[in-house]
Specification:
The protein contains 8 helices and 5 strands, in the order αααααααββαβββ. It is of the alpha+beta class and 311 residues long. The C terminus is likely disordered.
Length: 311
């Protein structure tokens, strides 16, 4: 299933869970179930925003965005994290008020059943989102899946807490449970905001992808006759949503014809793209006797070659 189709399904599931959990909270007057229903509104807003950002992220590169629009997914994840934290504040405020002014609970059997059914919907969708996030390398899908799983665990805690209220008769447990829900939501929201900030700051590729990149270079050097005469250095990587980037230098003997060096460069680029899906490679050719050094120009870093390297 495509990311857009999954997020549309997420919107539908969010609407269903709002109805089920809202009904459960209405008939039971349980602050725990009401707080759980409030989080479902966040699920709906997050899914709608994520759908919009994923749609933008799939747009092709243009003159104003030559590297594409892939980072739009990070805005989705960050927005979802902020919404989660906002929902936690609202839940905490309502829980404190209910703690001060307790209210008897009613029809808990029906309320718990509705909560369990809605959690089953969320758990099934979260499983699909996690699988698709790994396949498409989508942080928007991963964020939505994480939020839904947090919702599942929250609902489970609410069910356990309400069973404890039934067993003990302590009404204050319901409000304390809602406060615990709020704290758990804050933790999940903070995690999503942090992940998004790291993506927007051009975080390096995952360790597994970097290992695959270096292994691909080693395999290329081992299989071509010119391998012993090649040297690679200054490897820099970054990721932007589904797209990955790698910049590196390939040093060749200075007396090689340009056509020969360019043909090998094309082979290296293809090997790296085969090893790391979604990779865009920028490979600079340099003679073995030259090194690239970083310089500053109008506040922007670039590289230029000098002749101080060893052969």
């Amino acid at each position: 299933m495509s990311p857009k189709a999954l997020l549309r399904l997420s919107v539908v599931v969010a609407l269903v869970t709002i109805v089920l959990k809202g009904w459960a909270g209405y008939i039971t007057h349980s602050m725990g179930l009401i707080s759980d229903a409030m989080e479902s509104f966040v699920n709906l807003a997050s899914a709608v925003f994520a759908l919009g950002m994923v749609t933008i992220a799939t747009r092709p590169a243009d003159d104003e965005h030559p590297y594409g629009h892939h980072k739009a997914e990070y805005f989705s994840s960050g927005f979802e994290g902020i919404l989660i934290i906002g929902a936690a504040v609202a839940i905490g405020w309502a829980a404190i008020d209910r703690l001060i002014h307790p209210h008897p609970l009613e029809q808990l059997g029906w309320g718990l059943a509705l909560s369990v059914v809605s959690s089953a919907f969320n758990a099934g969708l979260a499983f699909l989102l996690f699988r698709a996030a790994e396949e498409h390398r989508s942080i928007a899908l991963e964020a939505d899946g994480r939020h839904l799983m947090a919702d599942v665990w929250t609902s489970a805690a609410v069910v356990v807490g309400l069973l404890a209220v039934l067993a003990t008769g302590w009404l204050w447990l319901d409000s304390v449970l809602a406060l615990g829900v709020a704290l758990n939501i804050v933790r999940e929201g903070a995690h999503l905001v942090w992940r998004s900030s790291q993506g927007l700051m051009d975080q390096a590729l995952e360790p597994e992808a970097q290992e695959a990149l270096h292994a691909a270079l080693d395999r290329f050097v081992a299989r071509v006759p010119e391998g012993p005469q090649l040297r690679f250095d200054d490897i820099i990587t970054r990721r932007a949503g589904q797209r990955r980037f790698a910049d590196l230098h390939m040093h060749v003997p200075g007396d090689w014809p340009l056509q020969r060096a360019a043909a090998l460069r094309d082979g290296v680029e293809q090997a790296l793209m085969d090893a790391v899906p979604g990779l865009r490679v920028t490979l600079q050719l340099l003679p073995l006797t030259m090194e690239a050094r970083a310089v500053q120009l109008d506040g922007h870093a670039r590289t230029e070659a000098d002749g101080k390297g060893a052969a």
